[in-house]
């Protein structure tokens, strides 16, 4: 498990309680020591008690990777490159890789699975994603949750589903790796924009129209990238959009709401102490769309607010004329 945040903690809980041994890399020495002393991750999901017979925290990435059959990536996308660049190109040979990240590599504007495939010379059949509407905070509370494992390799997807399934987690395999991964990136942008509108005082009526227009925006973009038929009403697509757009736990909605209320990007980021992937994703998707030229009014509005410094009130005022 790579990453010491909320989602890494939640997935470590699920996997270890199901019997897997988890070699868990996190960057902070103090966090590892705290975990070894108390069984709790000090700063994320700190209510979760972990079984140290099966959870082995370390700051030594090479050691953790060498010991594992599966590599689960759960650091925010912005830090994937710096973490993985410590590994040799052959370090992942023979392993199966699952990205639990809902973001793109900033600057390169590529999906995490594409980056890993290229960097470590792996076929996509060695890779998968964990998707679906699932907040780490609800895993900590053992609330009924659903995950989708997307991979072009049906056996890999089913094998990882089997590692996840338990009393409160249902997991289903799916073949659409790219579509699921892109939609998981885009739903963060939508939730962030909904948060901005909420922060400005827009209500549920506007939010519902924003989300339904967002589904069409996601469909247009995903189709332009890869026109394979996909049913966006599935829980890995629409379900994930809904949970992020409406949940009290959503980082992206919370971040957007702060921006709508007048926080600068920097102060919102500092106050949250968690990462809103949508902030980085807006730039990547906007830049990819320069070539594709798909109509994406919601993403454009978010980009103009976050990167062009247009006032949120002005931009959402313009967006409101484009929604139907
Ligand atoms: N939280 C959730 O419910 C879900 C999250 N995801 C995805 O999981 C991924 C991880 O998110 P999540 O667990 O929520 O993250 P959190 O916001 O909970 O934690 C932030 C993580 O980022 C690390 N970090 C912050 N700054 C840096 C840096 N400069 N270099 C390296 N690491 C840094 C933190 O490490 P440190 O503590 O050492 O600062 C911490 O591990 C994201 O892609 C997210 O979209 C997917 C589904 C559900
Ligand atoms: O992707 C997630 C839940 O599926 C986490 O992102 P949010 O916290 O913004 O909802």
UniProtKB/TrEMBL annotation:
Whether Electron transport counts among this entry's keywords is no
What top-tier enzyme class does this entry carry? oxidoreductase
* Catalyzed reactions per annotation: sn-glycerol 3-phosphate + NADP(+) = dihydroxyacetone phosphate + NADPH + H(+)
Which residues are in the Glycerol-3-phosphate dehydrogenase NAD-dependent N-terminal domain? 1-156
Superkingdom: Bacteria
Molecular function (GO) terms listed? glycerol-3-phosphate dehydrogenase [NAD(P)+] activity
This entry's Enzyme Commission designation comes to: 1.1.1.94
Task: Report the residue ranges that make up the Glycerol-3-phosphate dehydrogenase NAD-dependent C-terminal domain in this protein.
Answer: 176-314
Record SUPFAM superfamilies: 6-phosphogluconate dehydrogenase C-terminal domain-like, NAD(P)-binding Rossmann-fold domains
UniProt keywords (A-Z) are: Lipid biosynthesis, Lipid metabolism, NAD, Oxidoreductase, Phospholipid biosynthesis, Phospholipid metabolism
The similarity annotation says: Belongs to the NAD-dependent glycerol-3-phosphate dehydrogenase family.
Provide the protein name.
Answer: Glycerol-3-phosphate dehydrogenase
**Source species of the chain:** Hymenobacter terrestris
